[in-house]
Input
Amino acid sequence: MRCLQPGCTGRIVDGYCDICGMPGPAAPTGPVIPAPSGPQSAGGPCGQPGCGGQLVDGYCDRCGSPAPSAPPPVPAPATASSSVKASTALGTLVFGSTRAATIAGRAQRRKPPSAAASSIGAGLTVVPPAPEIDPAKAILANPVVPEDRRVCPKCGARVGQSDDGSDGRSEGFCPSCGAPYSFTVKLKAGDLVAGQYRVQGALAHGGMGWIYLARDENVSQRWVVLKGLLNSGDSDALAAAISESQFLARVGAHPLIVEIYNFVTHGDAGYIVMEYVGGRSLKQLLQQRRTANHGAPDPLPPDQALAYLIEILPAIGYMHQLGLLYCDFKPDNVIQTGDNLKLIDLGGVRLIGDNDSPIFGTVGYQAPEVATSGPSVASDIFTIGRTLMVLCADVPGYQSDYEVTLPPADSAPVFADNDSLYRLLQRCCAADPDDRFTSVDELRAQMLGVLREVVGQGGRVAQTAGVSDYFHSPTAIGERATWQILPQLRLRPDDPKLQAVLDIADPAQRLSGLAGLAKTVEATVASGVAHVQTGDLKAAAADAGSLLAADPWEWRALWISGLAAMASSNYSQAQAAFNSVYGQLPGELAPKLALALACEQSEPALAERLYLTCAGADANYASAAAFGVARVRARAGRWRETVEALELVPATSRGYGEAQRLRAHFLVTNVEPDNLDAALKTLDQANFDKATKTSYEAALLEKALAANPRSAQASALRQRLEAAWRELAAASSDPAQRAQYVDKANAIRPWSLL
Output
């Protein structure tokens, strides 16, 4: 079977990909819990672009790439308006929850299998390494918690505030609920904790108390972190903390998650002992950029922001596989050390379905439903989306006006210039949890697609080809703008009988074969596509309707609707359908190509932009997109830019010959006198047969002579044009056409006395 790693074209041989080396998908048997410690069995090199790690128990020990499973489905639709800048202006994005509301009872989303992983940049972009930091220099000289960060650990009320000119108390009792609080440092430099850990000083104050740097005197003086626990004087809380630390030690087995070494007590306080991760958090990186920018916000370039999250997401996906939720993902909790990332601060981690433990979250990142419904995989997805937004855009009101919503697409240049990035954020941060990505793996796969687009901006043609889990690459390319040029859906039926029917090329015969099979989801999708191909659009609509009735988030039903609308020349309806698919699959190029095709006549500027996005992101799409750009520009009379667009068709494409013909046609029919020499040189470089090339050359020479009949070059032009006409006459098999060419040659021949 084919490897499911994004961008890999290998095949699974003996359980591993023969190109990237990643393990193949395995049937799920419930949560996978790796051994927390001890020697691990190696599985060969990671094989991910730019990663030099080794596979250990199905995970790379450097980049954390897990064994892939299968691809996911997806949800959402939209309406149509008009836009030049971004496709978001085509209409409000309507997710599957809206369709579900029209169906009796609340539809249950299908949970898709997972996709794959890779290293920082995913081989597509470069992320600067973080500088090395001397641990001793990270110690706070004056460890004091500012008053604006002093809140009661129980009720969240402000405590320890200044009053009547007196300084606020660093410890005492909350005036609202009476709970004790303390912000004083409990450990000092030189203290020995549990007879093993020599304290060096305080590093920071977190949600669970002070965090200290120490040396492990029993293990090679290695640096460790001691994380103090709130309410550790309470025996019940202390027992719960000990249980939690043992529980979190299991999570730390993943190479992208900070490792938990131990849990110890010192006096009446308890401390989690964990790996010291020296480096800078993504929040600190943003602060450093602001400082370097003279105090003005300077968000990360979108490719770097995406690369950081693509790298760290396998850690959260791993926790979800263990039945855990991270709950408080934000830039503060991702540390970069050199070329590596670590997820830190596991204080908010809890079991899926745990309705009793306290909920940890941060304003501006926490999903709106957490307060009433509790955390979930969907709420973790929300925090990831919010983190991406904060990393790549300056959104001043993200903790107030836009606490749980996105600002308008035109409010920040990064959103206006990166349409797919904004669509990705829309789905991550959808108000209804069911409208968000259903898994971290699904989200990560779409992030990789968006990263390819961001890197490929600028009108360039992508040199590499991607692999989609949902669509085949475009095969039908050329001058005509029909729905047949669009990529075919990639179906993966489990039933061998259905696979045999899908292999039938003729759509009418395929429908006959499908009639004898059970109406599964895959069979219904195949039936809908075949009905469009045979022109039975009513039957195609019926198939799409039955798919949506069963699952309002089934985006392939919208794809079928879009194809049917294109087949009936209902371009506004096609725009709405393909716009919806785009909203659900922001990292896929097929919906963008389809939307561009539907927008060519009514929204040409948007169509051109979408085509250029496809050309720059994936070499597989370069030819189809280039022809699309040429059509848009030719319709607007922009012939020079039309010729430039046709130059985007790679020489290796089977559409290259047609592109050359069209280029010559535009040069001959639109060339201006000042550009005749350049046109002739371009024609000389074209890969035409001799007769075609000569006919185009003759047409250009005629224009050149007509523009300069008395110039010094006129005689040479006449001789060259005469030779061209006679060459065409000799090659022609039609007597009448041959005579016409000879007459033209004689007419242009210079007069002489002989």
